[in-house]
Design brief:
- One of its GO terms (cellular component) is plasma membrane.
- Belongs to the cytochrome b561 family.
- InterPro entries: Cyt_b561_bac/Ni-Hgenase (IPR011577), Cytochrome_b561_oxidase (IPR052168), Di-haem_cyt_TM (IPR016174).
- The protein has 179 residues and is mainly alpha-helical.
- It has one domain.
- It has five helices and two strands; from the N terminus they run H-H-H-E-E-H-H.
- Strands 1-2 form a two-stranded antiparallel ribbon.
- A hairpin with a 2-residue loop joins strand 1 and strand 2.
- The protein starts with 9 loop residues before the first helix and ends with a helix.
- The mean pLDDT is 92.
């Protein structure tokens, strides 16, 4: 019989701690993009587009790692409602992490703008050029960004609860490797 794992795999931890600051940066870059009309706007867009595609690739890899390597079990003492909240919030995080770059890409496609990765390297459009579709996708991208921000804050609050108050191993399962 295999012993129960108490930590996420090293690759899962690497992906988590790589993506966390990138997602937070993307949220703040997005706020900066809509809050300014200065020259910084173009710079922020030039960062936002390829970073969004990089995060899309990372989340695909992360989902693959999660499906193949799994995750450590939640503590037995965790109440059923908290177990449900933990599983539901992780599902919401994964959905939002994948949806945000896809919707952004579709939004730019609908507006007729290329998604530039670097220099002449552009991604193909994934939505038809359509002003109404662009408006819908832009609003959706904005609202889902708020949802992602709120979910990230809840995730951080839960991590702090487990790490600083409950000391039940949930935080350490992602924070450090097995000893």
């Amino acid at each position: 019989m295999r012993p129960t794992r108490t930590h996420f795999s090293p690759l899962a931890r690497l992906l988590h701690w790589t993506m966390a600051p990138l997602i937070i940066a993307m949220l703040f870059i997005g706020v900066g993009m809509v809050a300014t009309v200065s020259r910084a706007h173009d710079t922020l867009i030039a960062i936002h587009k390829p970073l969004g595609i990089a995060l899309l690739l990372l989340v695909v890899l992360r989902v693959g790692v999660r499906l193949t390597r799994g995750s450590p079990p939640l503590p037995d003492a965790m109440p059923a409602l908290q177990r449900f909240a933990a599983k539901a919030s992780h599902l919401v995080l994964y959905v939002l992490m994948a949806a945000m770059p896809l919707i952004g890409w579709a939004m730019l496609s609908a507006a007729g703008y290329p998604v530039t990765l670097y220099g002449p390297l552009h991604l193909p459009p994934i939505a038809p050029h359509n002003v109404e579709l662009f408006a819908l996708l832009r609003a959706l991208h904005t609202w889902l960004a708020f949802a992602l921000f709120a979910t990230v804050l809840l995730h951080l609050a839960a991590a702090l609860l487990h790490g600083l108050i409950r000391h039940d191993g949930v935080f350490s399962s992602m924070a450090r490797g097995e000893r």
